[in-house]
Amino acid sequence: MAKRTAVAKILDDISDAVPHLIRLPDRKAWIDYDEQADVLYISLRRPQRATDTKFLADKGILLRYRAKDLVGVTVLDASKPRKRRKPRA
Fold first, then answer.
1. How far is the C-alpha of 45 from the C-alpha of 39, rounded, in Å?
2. What are the tens digits of pLDDT across the range 36-83?
3. Nearest-10 Cα torsion for 37, 34, 56, 27
4. Contact 33, 41 (CB under 8 A)
5. Residue 24 DSSP SS3
6. Which secondary structure element, helix H or strand E, spans residue 69, and what is its range?
7. Is the pLDDT score of 1 beyond 60?
8. What is the pLDDT of residues 12-43, one digit of tens each?
9. Going by C-beta distance under 8 Å and a sequence separation of 6 or more, which residues neighbour residue 2?
10. What are the CA-CA distances from residue 37 to residues 25, 30, 47, 80, 83 (Å)?
11. CA 76 to CA 33: how far, in whole Å?
12. For 51, which of 7, 8, 66, 79 is 20 to 30 Å away at the CA?
């Protein structure tokens, strides 16, 4: 029964993520999580080969660019709660 509950939780989490995932700029994405470092890597291109990085300090996020194209996102302290952006009025 505990296994069934764990699977149900995973399915709920994936279902919650789907609307966000389908809005990614490219049709494919690779997601890697380093639990020890608590860093989530989202690659929008393989190989990434970023040439520039923009650090969003207030969010703990690195945006990785190749020329002007976003090729990856690195989320620091990924397991910690995030500040939510206020909805536009």
1. 18
2. 999 999 999 888 789 999 999 999 999 999 999 999 999 999 999 876
3. 180
4. yes
5. coil
6. strand 69-76
7. no
8. 988 998 898 888 887 788 999 999 999 999 99
9. none
10. 26, 18, 22, 12, 20
11. 10
12. 79
Token pair of 47 as six digits: 């190989």
The predicted pLDDT at position 81 comes to: 84
H-only helix segments in 1-89: 2-21
Coil, strand, or helix at residue 64? Answer: strand
Predicted confidence at residue 51, as pLDDT, reads: 94
Q: Hey, what amino acid is at 15?
A: S
Q: For residue 75, give the nearest of 88, 89, 56 by alpha carbon.
A: 56
